[in-house]
Amino acid sequence: MNDHEKLNYVEFPSSDLDATKAFFQKAFAWSFVDYGPEYTAFSGQGLDGGFFTSKLCSNSANGAALLVFYSNNLEVTLAKVSEAGGKIVKPIFSFPGGRRFHFVEPSGNEFAVWSDVAP
Q1: Residue 88 CA: distances (Å) to CA of 44, 80, 101
Q2: What is the pLDDT of residues 6-59, one digit of tens each?
Q3: For the chain, which domains are there?
Q4: DSSP state, 60?
């Protein structure tokens, strides 16, 4: 259901839509709907969104927003991300309330995964 004036959709650039889709399919079991050769959408992942063809990428070091996944088992999720071709750019670290790591997917977009579950 769409909620009035609430976040509803997010879009990311992708220099390689096929590699981006393959990564998210393998690491997080996402499915996609293609809307032409330059756009693909995902849904049912907590927030719906899509990827559009672009040479740019979303990276927090450049001031971009950081989208953060939640995991019940951070080490298992880190292994899945790595096995799917994600590059770990900040290994697991602790912060008040939990632990997290950051990764980039094949098109260079940065994401993080956090957990409040102790190892």
Answers
A1: 25, 11, 7
A2: 999 999 999 999 999 999 999 999 999 999 999 999 999 999 999 999 999 999
A3: 9-115 (3.10.180.10)
A4: G
Within its chain, how far is the Cα of 96 from the centroid? 22
Sheet of strand 48-53, all strands in order from the earlier edge strand to the far edge: 9-14, 48-53, 39-42, 33-34
* Torsion angle in degrees (nearest 10) through CA of 73, 68, 13, 6: 130
| DSSP 3-state of 76 | helix
Write down the pLDDT at residue 56: 97
Give the Cα separation of 41 and 89 in Å (integer).
25
Find residue 41's DSSP bridge partners: 33, 50
CB of 111 closer than 8 Å to CB of 69:
yes
